[in-house]
Amino acid sequence: MVTWLVAAAHEIPQELGDFGILIHGGWSKKKALVFNFISASTIILGGICAYFLSSKINITFLLPFAAGNFIYIASSDLIPEVKHGCSVKNNILHFMSFIIGVLLIFLVKFINV
């Protein structure tokens, strides 16, 4: 249940962030919205595949694989873009947001024990 809540809480800002990145990359609003919707819709197919595969094979390797992909994307693409042209105040705000996110993950871990 906690995993579902965290995933649901993550999706709205994640989709808005993806949309903003596409707009910042020069895409039109309509094209960004359509492609963002199509890419987000692939979760349905992935969820169905994972559900049926989970009875046949151990799919626990998918979680660290997905986490590694998110860390790679954040460190190679998003963090350099955030740091580009920011003031010290904005850098501190971004760092504090990161720390709050890490603390929330630890909080969920300790509550879920």
Strand content: under 5%
- Estimated radius of gyration: 17 Å
The number of distinct structural domains comes to 2
Principal-axis shape: globular
- What structural category arises from helix and sheet content? mainly alpha
Q: What's the main sheet like?
A: none
Give an overview of the whole structure.
This protein is mainly alpha-helical. The protein has two domains: about 1-60, no CATH class; about 60-113, no CATH class. Helices cover about 85% and strands about 0% of the residues. The protein has four helices and no strands. It has helices spanning about 1-25, 30-55, 60-85, 90-110. Helix 1 packs antiparallel against helix 2 (about 30-55). The two termini are about 15 Å apart. The relative contact order is 0.06. The mean pLDDT is about 80.
Short description:
By secondary structure, the protein is an all-alpha fold.
Essential attributes:
2 domains; mainly alpha
Topology:
Blueprint: H1 2-24, H2 29-54, H3 62-83, H4 88-111
